Amino acid sequence: MTSQEIRAKFLDFFAKRGHVIVPSSSLIPDDPSVLFTTAGMQQFKRYYTGELDAVKDFKKKNAVSVQKCFRTSDIDEVGDESHLTFFEMLGNFSFGGYFKEKAIEYAYEFITEKLKLPIDYVSVFAGDKEVPADTESERIWESLGVKNVKKAGRADNFWGPTGSEGPCGPTSEVYVRGVEVWNLVFNEYYCKTRINADETRIDAEGKKILTPLKIKGIDTGLGLERLAMVVQGKPTIFETDTFEPLLKLLPETMPVRTKRILADHVRGVAFLISDGVCPSNKEAGYVLRRLMRRTMVYLHLAGNPVKPVHLFEEVFENCERFYPELNREVVLEVFDEEHQRFQATLQKGLRELARAPTLDVRSAFMLYESFGLPYEIVKELGGDKAKDLKREDFDEEFKKHQEISRAGVEKKFGGHGLVLDTGEIKAGSEEELKKVTRYHTATHLLHQALREVFGEEIAQRGSDITTERTRFDFTFPRKVTPEELKRVEDIVNEKIREDLPVQFEEMPKEEAEKTGALHFFSAKGGSASGGKWKYPTRVKVYYVGHSLEGAWNKEFCGGPHVGHTGEIGQFKIMKEEASSAGVRRIRATIV
């Protein structure tokens, strides 16, 4: 049975038993407490708490999904027989529709009858001072003929939220051929850290509060890769049909661990980029860059025996039928751009790594900062020199560096993340500030021109301005034609020739919103560039025209801007390309 068939069989099984099939959510969740989607239940979290109504949204109280997941906690372990960063989770969920008895019966039926697998044993929660033993689940399993029921404590058989709070409860795990394949979570409680009088999140003993949920729910998860290993009778997940084609593209002489890392990372890279992540030095973009550069280093050290495009094509071939959001064009373009940027320093960095007498946290971070070598590469290739190097120390050094960089930014402006010190060019002089100011106003004109050509569905997704060019990202589903780019460019230059005044008014945010001025929030409540910045209670509305009411363009912004559009100069679009899935990028200059 192939992985594709397992997915289909699982969805069909639960659809026929009153579950609505819900598509996988993005790897970038709406939940601000987590960086990535790490489990199938994350998109359903608010249905367990009663904040959302499943019947209203899904027409049913029960759901089933195949969720793409990403976990950063396993990056350092990738390369062994079982750990992955990207994986798929099969799950069935109920929000008051059924509870333990049906959940256990469904699991038993699917494993033993649909997959024809024997259950070795199951585990249930043994109980503690706060939560009683789960004798009900034990009784249900035994009534189905499963006599080998083991009991375990909270570390093994009680699921808690990954963030500070959320639904939780005892679990029951199903083992087949010695492998845990299914975890059934019985959400009975809501877990919330205790808030003290001084607003700290935990009490003196570090305890958390458990309160009964109004609606008891079911949350289950089967790792597809692990289940496929058992179904297909393979010794590890890397021999299954998901990974074997990737490994066959790599030379037999390459170490097995390296092959597994490459197979895992190219999958993770493809899905992260397709879900809108771009390589950067913060948050999700930082994780993506680590995966990309680790992939590049291993291929370089092996003499580049296979082109990255061939590895990605295998991922597309295997996954895009089930995940149509995989975007070949964007993935290859973003990877190639990062590869070209990294190639300039890669060999120098490897030479410096080889020459370094010792590798403590500071020298390791220097190799990252100066040459882009990820921690994983420094740790592995450093050998004995890096034996005392620890991930937590490196992360702390990285955090300190970020704080120093933020403190060193001399000038900051703009309501959507525009900074004078971009990290690429330091615009510290008055002359440079004048250039960037012209580009900043030109970017506002570009945004408005795009809306005139393509309509109001155009939304900003980030911008980056230096003294030499502007880069603007916006939502659009396809490549922009040369004729359309010319129309956009002509509109911008027409407004420049009109020499319109650029002015601002400061007012309360609520009043500013009523003016119709453009302002941008991401799904997480941050700016359109993906950050977590929020508008203050009073904002500036910059507008292009003779009055705010009749302005051609008006946006929330902090400035600075030119006084009249005629100061900008002639606007020229240099390039249009994909930035991420559903997002295009324009680079333009002023001549």
UniProtKB/TrEMBL annotation:
This is alanine--tRNA ligase. SUPFAM superfamilies: Class II aaRS and biotin synthetases, Putative anticodon-binding domain of alanyl-tRNA synthetase (AlaRS), ThrRS/AlaRS common domain. The keyword ATP-binding applies. Transmembrane segments: none annotated. Belongs to the class-II aminoacyl-tRNA synthetase family. One of its GO terms (biological process) is alanyl-tRNA aminoacylation. Keywords: Aminoacyl-tRNA synthetase, ATP-binding, Ligase, Nucleotide-binding, Protein biosynthesis, RNA-binding, tRNA-binding. It holds the Pfam family tRNA-synt_2c. SMART domains: tRNA_SAD. It comes from Candidatus Jorgensenbacteria bacterium CG23_combo_of_CG06-09_8_20_14_all_54_14. Its EC number is 6.1.1.7. One of its GO terms (molecular function) is ATP binding. InterPro entries: aa-tRNA-synth_II/BPL/LPL, Ala-tRNA-lgiase_IIc, Ala-tRNA-ligase_IIc_anticod-bd, Ala-tRNA-synth_IIc_core, Ala-tRNA-synth_IIc_N, Ala-tRNA_ligase, Thr/Ala-tRNA-synth_IIc_edit, tRNA_SAD. It is an enzyme of class 6 (ligase).
